[in-house]
């Protein structure tokens, strides 16, 4: 049945080369942990992607209940965590995943660094990777405010102070992030929400696409 | 199946196990999220309490609108909302409390809302009409009678609860 549906579609739009391009490729021996166990270090990039997928999915589901409003943000989080079935798990996935993804990203970066895999011709991909790292950190930072509890609030106050410390443009940067020159409140929360769920994920997707296209184009770096 | 014993090749075996493990991982990831999302559908709808509406002595043979306020808990938001009913005593001195919600598309109906039909309920949205007992007038948009409130009288006060289907349906349905 499935085969028939697949054939029907493939007959018309020839999708086989499309997915073969994405999914069907050789794994070199030096990257395969079955040959050299130490090759498990090559997993961290994929694990980063895997956790990112979890973050995207759990985040999408969380917005079904969460509202970015200072009166209701905390209450909606409390509600979804205590009253909605599996709310604690879904929020837990997003909460812990946010830390795990940074850890994986860091391990991936260490592997690439110590293997010298960033060297010519892969410098561009290293740069894109660094941008991805910044986007991921920014996602963690903006997401931290959203539950609108005391920890979130004061962490954001500190972040904004740091932004203000930038020479020359500090004050402007702070107001831009904050939405108001002095009050950390309604506008800040709305802004952080928009940045967290629309702007940064959009940047993340574009950068990830570039990152993956480049690795497929250039191939994985050779053995040490 | 065929006359030959089916052999599972290494490649097939690997394919099946990888698909199985992958499917299990995807399922365990998605199961809590899906359950989380469909929770509103599965939450038990508790029966509505009875609410004091009006002193029975105020109820006449002419339908009158009475309002009462209920504390409504909407997830994390609690507020007071007003409900209404059209209440009268019928010829057997029985209390009839009709829901004002039009059975066509849910607007609010009014008794004698149209001067041309002073003894009918009228819905201003699409000119739906109902007789005094709630039965929808044939050839007007609504296709069912106005719902009835469950009621009880305690110490001379009328209490209203859930709405239920009106027994006076067209064709005795």
UniProtKB/TrEMBL annotation, chain A:
Protein name, UniProt field: Menaquinol:cytochrome c reductase cytochrome b subunit
Signal peptide limits: none
Subunit structure of this chain's protein: The main subunits of the menaquinol:cytochrome c complex are a Rieske-type iron-sulfur protein (QcrA), a cytochrome b (QcrB) and a cytochrome c (QcrC).
One protein family per Pfam: Cytochrome_B
Highest rank taxon of the organism: Bacteria
Species assigned in the record: Gracilibacillus thailandensis
GO molecular function terms noted in the UniProt entry: electron transfer activity; metal ion binding; oxidoreductase activity
CC cofactor: heme c; heme b
Function: Component of the menaquinol:cytochrome c reductase complex.
Database matches in InterPro entries: Cyt_b/b6_N (IPR005797), Cytb/b6-like_sf (IPR027387), Di-haem_cyt_TM (IPR016174)
Localization terms from the record: Cell membrane
Xref: SUPFAM superfamilies: Transmembrane di-heme cytochromes
Domain Cytochrome b/b6 N-terminal region profile: 5-224
Keywords: Cell membrane, Electron transport, Heme, Iron, Membrane, Metal-binding, Transmembrane, Transmembrane helix, Transport
Stretches that traverse the bilayer: 39-67, 96-114, 126-146, 192-215
């Amino acid at each position: 049945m499935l085969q028939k549906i697949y054939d029907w579609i493939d007959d018309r739009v020839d999708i086989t080369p499309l997915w073969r391009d994405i999914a069907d490729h050789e794994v070199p021996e030096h990257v395969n942990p079955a040959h050299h166990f130490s090759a498990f270090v090559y997993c961290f990039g994929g694990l980063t992607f895997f956790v990112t997928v979890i973050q995207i999915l759990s985040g999408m589901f969380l917005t079904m209940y969460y509202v970015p409003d200072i009166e209701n943000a905390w209450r909606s989080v409390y509600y979804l965590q205590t009253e909605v079935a599996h709310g604690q798990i879904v929020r837990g996935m997003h909460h812990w995943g946010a830390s795990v993804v940074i850890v994986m990203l860091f391990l991936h970066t260490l592997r690439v660094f110590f293997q010298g895999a960033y060297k010519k011709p892969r410098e561009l991909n290293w740069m894109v990777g660094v941008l991805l790292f910044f986007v991921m950190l920014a996602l963690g930072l903006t997401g931290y405010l959203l539950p609108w509890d005391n920890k979130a609030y004061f962490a954001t106050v500190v972040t904004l102070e740091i932004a203000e410390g930038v020479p020359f443009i500090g004050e402007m940067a702070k107001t831009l992030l904050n939405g108001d020159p002095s009050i950390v409140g309604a506008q800040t929360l709305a802004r952080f929400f928009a940045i967290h769920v629309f702007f940064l994920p959009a940047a993340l997707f574009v950068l990830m696409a570039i990152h993956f296209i480049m690795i497929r184009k250039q191939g994985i770096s050779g053995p040490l | 199946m065929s006359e030959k014993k089916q052999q599972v090749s290494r490649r097939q075996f690997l394919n099946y196990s990888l698909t199985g493990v992958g499917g299990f991982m995807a399922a365990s990831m998605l199961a809590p999220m899906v359950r989380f999302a469909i929770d509103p559908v599965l939450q038990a709808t508790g029966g509505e309490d009875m609410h004091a509406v009006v002193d029975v002595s105020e109820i006449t043979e002419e339908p009158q609108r009475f309002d009462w306020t209920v504390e409504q808990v909407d997830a994390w938001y609690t507020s007071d909302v007003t409900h209404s009913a059209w209440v009268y005593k019928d010829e057997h001195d029985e209390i009839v409390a009709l829901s004002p919600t039009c059975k066509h598309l849910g607007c609010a109906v009014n008794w004698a809302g149209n001067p041309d039909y002073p003894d009918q309920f009228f819905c201003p949205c699409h000119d739906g009409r109902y007789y005094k007992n709630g039965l929808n007038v044939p050839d007007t948009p609504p296709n069912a009678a106005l719902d009835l409130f469950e009621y009880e009288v305690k110490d001379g006060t009328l209490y209203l609860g859930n709405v239920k289907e009106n027994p006076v349906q067209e064709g005795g349905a």
